[in-house]
# Entry
Amino acid sequence: MSLRFSLKKSFPGFDSNVELSAENEMTVLFGPSGAGKSLILKMISGIVRPDSGVICVDGQTVFDSSGGVDIPMRNRKIGFLFQDYALFPHMTVRENIAYGVTSNHKGEKNGRVKELMEIMRLSGLEGSYPHEISGGQKQRTALARTLASEPRLLLLDEPFSALDFQVREKLRADLANIHELFPVTAILVTHDLEEAFMLGQRIAVINGGRFEQVGSREDVFYRPATRNVARFAGTRNIFDGRVAGIRGEEVEIDCPELGVIKTHVPERLGLAGGRPVTFCIRPEEILVIRPDKGLGRVSDNIVEGDILSTTGRGSTHVLHLRAGQAGALLRIELPNFVMRKLGLEAGKRIKVSLKKENIWVIP
Amino acid sequence: MSLRFSLKKSFPGFDSNVELSAENEMTVLFGPSGAGKSLILKMISGIVRPDSGVICVDGQTVFDSSGGVDIPMRNRKIGFLFQDYALFPHMTVRENIAYGVTSNHKGEKNGRVKELMEIMRLSGLEGSYPHEISGGQKQRTALARTLASEPRLLLLDEPFSALDFQVREKLRADLANIHELFPVTAILVTHDLEEAFMLGQRIAVINGGRFEQVGSREDVFYRPATRNVARFAGTRNIFDGRVAGIRGEEVEIDCPELGVIKTHVPERLGLAGGRPVTFCIRPEEILVIRPDKGLGRVSDNIVEGDILSTTGRGSTHVLHLRAGQAGALLRIELPNFVMRKLGLEAGKRIKVSLKKENIWVIP
Amino acid sequence: MDLFPLYLTIKVSFTAAAFTIAAGLVLARLMAKRDFFAKNIIDTLIMQPLVIPPTVLGYYLLTALGASSPLGRFLERLGIRIVFTWKGAVVASIVSSFPLFAKPALAAFEGVSADLENAARLLGKTEFEVFRTVTLPLAWRGLAAGAVMAFARATGEFGATLMVAGNIPGLTQTMPLAIYDAVQTGNAFAANVMVGVITVFSFAVLYAAGRFSRVRF
Amino acid sequence: MDLFPLYLTIKVSFTAAAFTIAAGLVLARLMAKRDFFAKNIIDTLIMQPLVIPPTVLGYYLLTALGASSPLGRFLERLGIRIVFTWKGAVVASIVSSFPLFAKPALAAFEGVSADLENAARLLGKTEFEVFRTVTLPLAWRGLAAGAVMAFARATGEFGATLMVAGNIPGLTQTMPLAIYDAVQTGNAFAANVMVGVITVFSFAVLYAAGRFSRVRF
Amino acid sequence: APKARAGEKLTVAAAANLSVALKELGAAFEKASHVTPVLSFGDTVGLTRQIEEGAPYDVFLSADTVHVKDLDSGGFIFPDTATVYARGQIVVVWNKRYLSGPVGIDGLSGPGVKRIAIANPAHAPYGIAAMEALKSVGIWDKIKDKLVYGENIRQTLQFVQSGDAQAGIVALSIADVPEVGYTNIDQALYRPINQAACVIKTAKDEKAAREFIGFIKGPVGRKILVKYGFGVD
Ligand SMILES: Nc1ncnc2c1ncn2[C@@H]1O[C@H](COP(=O)(O)OP(=O)(O)OP(=O)(O)O)[C@@H](O)[C@H]1O
Ligand SMILES: Nc1ncnc2c1ncn2[C@@H]1O[C@H](COP(=O)(O)OP(=O)(O)OP(=O)(O)O)[C@@H](O)[C@H]1O
Ligand SMILES: [Mg+2]
Ligand SMILES: [Mg+2]
# Structure
């Protein structure tokens, strides 16, 4: 199964122009609010008519503005989980799910509904109406209804946003095994970084109606193609500089904020001396140097600074460091045990290393 | 400003019985889907009438079933952010927000609306109707409308669930500084662990309509009162055992799954030999012992096991370990650099230490 | 009391309401989801039977369906006789009550969320299934209101019926005609009794319809 | 053509529609948000004017408001004369058109999401403000449909008006009554012209109302 | 001085079957007296009820005598003004398209006549007369099932005009329309359809009202009534 589309759509104040192919896999659409994620799903499903473009599902052209093809929604065999659920208010939870089941055989239908209700932990709510259930229960009902129709393409608009962490993790795992459970191509919209990382073998980063990068999750997270992608993917430490020296793949960047920074750059980038460049490093890749141990083997890009604040985030802490000659703000994420061991707290002065191999120069 | 309530409400198949006091602070309601979080907010605001109970806001009794007090919603001065936004579909974004502003002075009103639209990054959408904006934009509009009314108590039902990570972080920071921006008591519902940790000076963990623990975030995260709280708070490694020996505050637990585990227990628990106990350890608090370094000073509760799987989660990795004599499943969260340094991958056999001070015995 | 008028009224009002509702559903559905130039015009035109005095409406219907009209002759040839039969009363009632159903039905259909209909389409349902299982139930409140009004109006139809069906006791004399006759004869008591009967009848039907059509969601 | 009937019809239909809408809004609002035992009964009772032939309704109204009734005498003493004045025509039109507005209005109000009303209440709005700024606009489609029907019905009201207001040229003769006169005189041409005029008038009003009441959201 | 009365109005409530004749009568009266008669048509029963409820009519021209008597016994009129001003006559009408006339009253039982329209004999005076005539000639039972009732005489005629009733019995006063032909019915076959007039007690200008009735019964009035098919004494 496969999906291929190339679409254009304009609204006053917003326009979208996107192109993508996906095979038997889960592609994650990731981007800020208002980027046009839901719009893409709506165009693929046929809810919103694109201004122009082509959509092929499974080799079948379901929409082609130039060829005048526009297959009705019901024949597209697309499962759509709406961001606001779109549950039928006049049907109970059970009826909503049963509505999606294609089989007409009664026993089969009941069995399938029961199975889905169990997977989605909805048992006991069979007879409740949508206005009588909680937000998360609504989302699970909607998800069950979508899966019930056994679509050949699954479009999921933030399927886990209203779910608690346990169900979410369970469903994520289910979805990650989606090829076994529901062997379909899937597009999943999320604004959750962790979710994007966990679920997306492939991630398409969208901003302002356009894809800024489409690639593997490692590419998107560690090798962002643009400054925006770097920002969205949580690579908070982004700096500008100028190429000061090149020695093979090793490049020295003169950064007004941090000083001279050394890094590796693949030769194909073809940087020339003096060229302005942007580089970044992820917060969790910044190494705090233990004061008691000295530099040891670590010698790359040592930066000294004052801890401005520390914020607990559950399993990690985030430090803000005022560092370098121009007082650049560095964000550092550390495991809690490191925090404790080093006794880090606001006001302390520490040294960190931006290791060469952790720095990424945005092409 | 303050809030105090004690409420009972029954539905077929669900009943709720909760009690809480909160001062000038942000209390986070945290719990699984369907636990009754939204219901509490609805009762406080007056949307759902409790079967019985009392609600005091700011010293004023706004509801008292025995005293026959039931102040109408409009006089409760409560700001409510609905889980499904409840935007007025016939008003534009601007009109929705302006609707909340109490001031009748035109200039003042316009100024306030403009300010809120900027804070919420909604500029440019003034004239759009709710059905024309994205999910996140809806949520931001709803949030702006709620804040516009300058309530004395703020009830936020999953205010950030539809927001992308950047806006979310920004708004979280704003809300964390809420006392300066909007000096009110606030109750925030979330199912997001990280959010609960970041925003809740105080966290109330709710399950099945009842509070299982109300306390500081450190209490909830590191000293869960019940097995459920431990589970919800992400303390995944929970085991049962029997007290095998007591030496002052040091206790030996005989755990069929992991073997004998030593830990500290405050004396007031008054454990007796042979008593069954439950203990837990957070995934990020489990120490992986470097094979090259030997045990070193680490000697507590060494467990050996095989790595079953490793899952990237963005800034960390999660390992599942089949460990101990009975093949207990341990979940371990490690920073990426540790993963890389130790070259951990599925199939490898490693030793981990469950340090005494990181083990929590559930009272 | 002669029971024939009651029997006829029941027959006519149910038949007329059924036709009105069926035709109104089709028209309203066709108009609801599209925006075409003539829509507003049609929407306004279907109100006209309300504006024209029923007797005059009846006069027009008689002219259109009677023996002197091509349509009337055509129907005659098919063996269908409308004028001076109970079918004439049905036609009169349909014309009078049509706007009362079609208008609220259109409003109700327009109010149904397109998202929910799309959700059903994406689950593979045909347009008819979508209509039956989603649009119809969601428009229910407005449709029920319209149906109840149309039925009540059909039950009470007098002016046009008089012209099209005539007032033939035992054949086309409905309750309203009988009531009118009683009033004209100065038999206020009989008139009141019959008004009582028609009130009780329509009350029972409408009350039952009201209970039955209760929306639970 | 004498323009007085047209003038009177305009005056009567607008006045009656205004009253009907005002009273209908109040009643529908009172009934919508509560569930009390008598609700279904009241809901059914307001349909009754549709079931009773207008002329008979006119007889009842005349009896209730005329010189021989206590109410009529009471009003007389207050200097208010209803019967045989244009006010009588207004009353007749109100009674006939009331169900056509109240019923869809009730359905429309019942369909308004309680959540949205609560959201407005929590923003500190009084019940009246909630009604004006939230309930009313959200019920708009159904209300507009009802208002249009009520207005059309008021414009075309004939039977009850004939009894309550009389058919006095230059005083209480509305267009429908003038059309009746023309028909009675066998002056089909004049009748057709007047039907044309009333159709154009009502069409213009209803078309404008339709355009104006378009729901954009 | 007639001039002084210019602009004065006299409201005449009249049975609808007079509507054509009264237009001319009214105009003639205005010319003679400078009082403008305002003609308010309705059905006799309705007008009677209205008078009982204080309707602002000055003169009542009924289609029968019973209702004037009723009003009299209720004390709503000046008893001395109650008077028969005209006698209605009925005729057989037939639709020229379906029947080649002339059709007499016996012809109503003929095979080409499937529907016969008469005014409702339960209350309409012309309907009662039609029934009496049909019974007198002995065909009532034969044609009873072919009858269709019009609520008033105009409607009855319309049934015949449209051809849905091929023939019927209506008032002579309205029978002169292109689609139908008519033949007289012997007045001996039915009781006279006397139409009575009276002045209402609440009349604003009793004098003018009495004058109006006098005018109808006078030479000009009688001439006009006869012209429109009414019988006068
Ligand atoms: N019917 C419409 N009319 C006008 N503008 C629209 C319409 N639908 C969407 N838009 C605009 O298109 C843009 C993209 O909307 P979309 O719903 O795809 O965002 P999104 O990426 O899904 O955001 P979120 O994460 O907040 O749901 C928004 O700026 C929105 O205002
Ligand atoms: N009107 C109602 N009738 C019946 N049951 C109800 C009603 N409202 C809520 N409930 C039940 O009460 C329970 C709690 O609902 P609530 O909306 O408070 O959950 P929640 O904690 O907010 O969950 P979520 O995180 O999914 O939004 C649910 O099981 C729900 O089914
Ligand atoms: Mg979206
Ligand atoms: Mg909730």
Observations:
- The first helix of chain A runs from residue 37 to 45.
- The mean pLDDT of chain A is 87.
- The CA atoms of residues 225 and 362 of chain A lie 6 Å apart.
